[in-house]
Design a protein that fits this description.
The complex is a heterodimer. By secondary structure, chain A is mainly α. Chain A has helices at about 1-20, 25-50, 80-105, 110-130, 130-140, 145-155, 160-190, 200, 210-225, 235-240, 245-270, 270-295, 300-320, 325-355, 370, 375-385, 395-410, 410-435, 450-470, 470-485, 485-490, 490-500, 505-515, 525-530, and strands spanning about 60-70, 75-80. Chain A has a two-stranded antiparallel sheet with strand order 1-2. In chain A, strand 1 and strand 2 (about 75-80) form a beta hairpin. The longest helix of chain A has about 35 residues, at about 160-190. The radius of gyration of chain A is 22 Å and the shape is globular. The longest helix of chain B is centred in the middle third of the chain and has 30 residues, at about 150-180. Chain B has a two-stranded antiparallel ribbon. The radius of gyration of chain B is 21 Å and the shape is globular. Chain B has helices at about 5-10, 10-30, 30-50, 70-95, 100-120, 125-140, 150-180, 185-190, 200-215, 225-230, 235-260, 265-285, 290-315, 315-345, 360, 365-380, 385-400, 400-425, 445-465, 470-480, and strands spanning about 60, 65-70. Chain B is about 75% helix and about 0% strand. Chain B has one domain (about 5-435, about 440-480). By secondary structure, chain B is mainly α. Chain B is built from 20 helices and two strands. Classes of the chains: A mainly alpha, B mainly alpha.
Chain lengths: ~525, ~475
């Protein structure tokens, strides 16, 4: 029931915020802040009350209620470590989004907060639901408010960006819907049980051809959302045109729903088809890493630049997902969290600068360190995080991903590693262009005020925590990662099936994983020793 | 005819009686309110009389009509829609100068015609129903004679509808010539042995499809739709878009299920082409429009294409999907035209996209309802349109109509373009704060009628979108008893 509350509080809070706008201009902000705080508190409570090491099964809480029994649709929510971490991230970034909009959003405040809370509700639903119909439902629910966020409160070219975002995600989502329906009927014809339940559909046996088609349906939605290179063109527009809160949610959360979908649905549902597709997916990932990095380097619009770094970083996600081993998936989960934080922080800094200078053009900036040292320091931390400096969360994520993908594909990993070098180049360029060089602007640049520091400090603390002591996060994610990988490492007949299709590489992965089995947790200290 | 026959025809008799009473009342004295009350009460009474027929099974009246679960459901749907439309009409016509009383008689007559259509099992009753509907519509479309495009629309509909009726009749004659009967069941048994349709019969069916296709405004028989939608008064447009098309689709389903037309690849091919062409043409042409009524006209062409996808599934699930989608589509379309009617002023309908600029900030609730309706047309979750589209896709995937299903998905995306544009216009910033509402406030009672109707529609839309089980149960319960 607590899971239903998470979604219900946000939706009700949104409606309440909208109505309260009639009474008072600042009331919606407080209501939004209150409801996000409430759900954040609930999730924290869930995390602390289920300490990671004693987790037996992967699923912590489940909730099930029939919704449309005629079609086998139920309102089914379930929480495991993976969802828990992503929910924490969602509500944390949600809190920040409310706070950063405090000054930035001055028109239609009430409606803004309605949309903000409903986006968060949709995202929370996506991370929680275990019914494929409901999943598609939430997948769509989060789009409409996001469309409004970009289209109403965005920058100069907002309507174009909003429409592009909406069409890309809708078109790919519909393909996923077709795939879901295909799966539903295949499962129904096999077993006579027509249901959209994730746990039931996991047992569907698919002909290779059908599996391939259905997998592409799912991949369409997730790869566009992630985004992976040929389908990424909506991202720079949407990210750069959205208001700061919108950019934070887009980069920090919406992209993660794509990664989550890959982990939760594509891997377990189509074990053979994904193994076939893996080399191509990893190749696309590497192309994304390099291409995103190069384009990031050539941007002059700060938000666009950060948007392209997302393309690059999401390349690591797909590289890791299709490596099919625990190392890489741990890295992917870490990458989802740390990228959410670091990119979110960079967008927030871009927002701070825009509020002060009314430009996002980095050619007009420069030398701000002397006038705004606090902002410079915060920016430095996250630029370093983005380039993967040890001690900050992103390093752990990228390191684990690369260790994992090395076991799957040596050469592609080598190229992916080059991406980290490129990351260093574009990240340092941000620092240099904005905070170093000579001062170009005449107008004064006030440093961060108390509210802004309140936003920035927790992010710095978190990214440091993730960098120095990621163990609690890894522990929380581990059982569910095992569960997602069951089809690849689990029972013997399935393993043979996988190995048959994939050839020698998969066997080596299994050997590695087999060695690891005695010690249930990957300890980061060991990783570093190796 | 026996007494039980009359009992089973009670809804139609009530409406006929209401027409006679209305005419007498007009003869005594003109009063808009009284006419409106008579109409609304008779729709309600007719709907209430359906309660006795709720588990009727299958009751045939002569060779002409049959009352079964399918028919009862469609009649109920038509009556409720007509009731809602009459409620919207009251506020709409109250602000106009013309004589308004005859409008309600025509509305009642058109509704009777549609009800006859959905329960007919014979070419004669089919044609009678269709003509009662069409002739009433000629007058309804041109009802506001002083308006610029009203005559054009009326004449256009008159000529093309007469033309298509001729096609339909010729087709019926050919079918009669080769099978020797005009009863659906008789035709079914006459052609049951054919694996391939003989040429004469195929020509007959083809000509009937022309006639039916015209009423449904599917491509390539869709030319009239945008002009008529634009020229007709907004409530009448709502009637054409919903009741008239729904009734014709109902009889089409009944006929095809009876004769099992899905056995013949030629017929399936024709309908497949028509469906794909309607989806594509409707959506692509809607992209070019700046007039909301025309956009809705093209979008309705596309939606009929979607409906044909489920129709082509040809099994029980397909019929359920069509019915469910029709309910969703009725609610949505009536709601959308209701908003158009509500925003219209004395001189003209609020049909330009410009009229909707910044509506959200001027009249937030109206805009919210319109947004909900448009999003439902686009098939976005939390609305009935989403569940309906899902049902259609499911029916299509179930019978593996991959081409049609993929076309539907593709078209939904194209459709999003213009639906989103309407929404975006409503959300734009107002250009100047000086804009005053052009229309004076109506009397509160009238205002309540249309606001109440729109509220009911919006709530229904969301209710069905969130909790479709109830409606599904009704549909499955009523239709399962009757599908042959």
């Amino acid at each position: 029931m607590i899971l239903v509350w998470l979604i219900a509080i946000l939706m009700a809070g949104g409606v309440l915020a909208w109505i309260s706008g009639k009474v008072n201009r600042s009331l919606p902000r407080w209501i939004a802040l209150g409801s996000v705080l409430a759900v954040f508190g609930l999730t924290l409570y869930l995390w602390l009350s289920n300490p990671a090491p004693v987790l037996g099964s992967a699923w912590l809480v489940q909730y099930n209620m029939p919704w449309i029994p005629q079609w086998g649709i139920s309102f089914s929510l379930a929480l495991d470590g993976l969802s828990l971490l992503l929910l924490l991230l969602t509500f944390f970034l949600g809190l920040l989004s409310v706070l950063i909009s405090w000054r930035e959003i001055q028109t239609k405040v009430a409606f803004f907060h309605l949309n903000l809370l409903w986006v968060l509700a949709g995202i929370a639903g996506v991370f929680l639901t275990m019914d494929l119909f409901l999943f598609y439902f939430f997948w769509e629910v989060m789009l409409i408010p996001m469309y409004f966020l970009i289209g109403i409160w965005g920058h100069e070219n907002r309507r174009y960006a909003a429409a592009k975002f909406f069409l890309f995600t809708q078109a790919s989502g519909l393909l996923m819907l077709l795939a879901i329906l295909g799966l539903y009927f295949i499962h129904g014809n096999q077993t006579g049980l027509y249901t959209f339940s994730y746990f039931e559909l996991l047992n569907t046996t698919l002909a290779p051809e059908a599996a391939r088609l259905l997998m592409f349906g799912f991949l369409a939605a997730f790869l566009v959302k992630l985004p992976i290179v040929p389908f990424h063109s909506w991202l720079p527009d949407a990210h750069s045109q959205a208001p700061t809160a919108g950019s934070v949610i887009l980069a920090g959360l919406l992209l993660k729903t794509g990664a989550y979908g890959l982990l939760r649905f594509v891997l377990p549902l189509f074990p053979t088809a994904t193994v076939e597709f893996a080399p191509w997916a990893m190749l696309l990932g590497v192309i994304g890493i390099l291409y995103g990095a190069m384009l990031a380097f050539s941007q002059t619009d700060l938000k666009r630049l950060v948007a392209y770094t997302s393309v690059s970083h999401m390349g690591f996600v797909i590289l890791g997902v299709f490596a099919f081993n625990e190392w890489a998936l741990q890295g992917v989960v870490m990458q989802m969290i740390t990228h959410g934080l670091s990119t979110g922080a960079l967008f927030i800094i871009a927002g701070f600068l825009y509020e002060r200078l009314h430009t996002r053009d980095i050619r007009q900036m420069g030398g701000f360190w002397s006038t705004a040292p606090k902002m410079g320091f915060i920016c430095l931390v996250f630029v370093m995080a983005s380039l993967g400096l040890p001690g900050l969360g992103n390093f752990i994520a990228e390191f684990l991903t690369l260790v994992g993908s090395w076991q799957a594909n040596n050469w592609l990993t080598v190229f992916a590693t080059i991406g980290i070098v490129l990351a260093t180049i574009y990240s340092l360029r941000i620092m240099q262009k904005i905070f170093l060089e000579e001062h170009k602007l005449k107008q004064a640049l006030p440093d961060l005020n108390a509210r802004e520091m309140l936003i920035a400090i927790p992010m710095v603390v978190l990214i440091l925590w993730l960098g120095f002591y990621p163990q609690p996060f890894l522990d929380t994610a581990q059982p569910s990662i095992r569960e997602q990988l069951q089809a690849y490492t689990g029972s013997a007949p399935e393993r043979e099936q996988v190995a048959e299709v994939a050839g020698p590489e998969t066997k080596t992965i299994e050997v590695v994983l087999g060695e690891k089995k005695p010690s249930p947790n990957i300890h980061i200290s060991k990783t570093l020793n190796q | 005819m026996t007494l039980t026959d009359f009992q089973h025809l009670m809804p139609l008799l009530i409406l006929t009686f209401a027409v006679l009473v209305s005419m007498l009342v007009i003869a005594v004295g003109r009063n808009h309110k009284i006419m409106y009350v008579i109409t609304a009460v008779s729709f309600l009474a007719a709907f209430a009389s359906l309660y006795d027929l709720r588990d009727v099974g299958r009751y045939t009246i002569g060779p002409l009509l049959v009352i079964d679960g399918f028919g009862v459901f469609y009649i109920g749907m038509i009556l409720l829609t007509a009731l809602l439309i009459s409620m919207l009409s009251y506020a709409y016509f109250e602000q106009r100068e013309e004589r308004k009383e005859e409008y309600y008689i025509l509305l009642l007559l058109a509704t009777i015609g549609t009800c006859v259509l959905v329960i007919s099992t014979h070419f004669a009753s089919l044609f009678l129903g269709l003509e009662i509907l069409s002739v009433s519509l000629y007058a309804l479309i041109a009802y506001l004679r002083t308006r610029e495009r009203s005559d054009e629309a009326g004449i256009k509909y008159l000529i093309l509808a007469a033309f298509s009726s001729a096609f339909l009749l010729f087709g019926m004659a050919l079918v009669y010539a080769s099978t020797g009967t005009m009863e659906f069941a008789g035709i079914a048994s006459a052609i049951a042995s054919f694996t391939e349709l003989p040429l004469l019969l195929l020509t007959g069916f083809g000509m009937m499809i022309v006639g039916i296709g015209f009423k449904l405004s599917v491509v390539p028989f869709h030319m009239w739709a945008p002009d008529v939608y634009e020229g007709a008064p907004a409530p009448v447009t709502a009637f054409i878009a919903t009741v008239s098309k729904g009734g014709v689709l109902g009889v089409l389903i009944r006929f095809f299920m009876e004769v099992d037309g899905f056995r013949y690849p030629t017929l399936v091919l024709i309908f497949t082409i028509v469906a794909i062409a309607s989806m594509l043409a409707g959506n692509l042409l809607a992209l070019l429009q700046r007039n909301v009524k025309r956009i809705l006209a093209y979008s309705s062409i596309a939606h009929l294409g979607y409906l044909l996808v489920a129709f082509l599934a040809g099994n029980e699930m397909g019929v359920e999907a069509v019915t469910f989608y029709l309910v969703a589509y009725f609610i949505t379309t009536v709601g959308a035209f209701g908003v158009v009617a509500m925003l219209s002023d004395k001189e003209r309908d609020a049909e330009q996209l410009e009229d909707y600029r910044a509506l959200l900030w001027r009249r937030p609730w109206t805009a919210a309802v319109f947004t909900a309706m448009v999003l439902s047309l686009a098939g976005i979750p939390l609305t009935a349109g989403f569940v309906g589209k899902f049902y259609i896709l499911a029916a299509g995937v179930n019978t593996q109509l991959w081409l049609l299903v993929v076309m539907l998905a593709l078209n939904s995306v194209i459709g999003l373009f213009y639906y989103i544009r309407i929404v975006a216009v409503m959300f734009q910033q107002p250009e100047a704060e000086t804009q005053v509402e052009p229309r004076g406030k109506l009397r509160p009672s009238i205002y309540v009628a249309s606001v109440g109707t729109l509220t009911v529609l919006a709530l229904l839309l969301v209710y069905i979108g969130v909790y479709p089980s109830g409606l599904l149960q009704i549909i499955q319960g009523l239709i399962a008893t009757t599908t042959p």
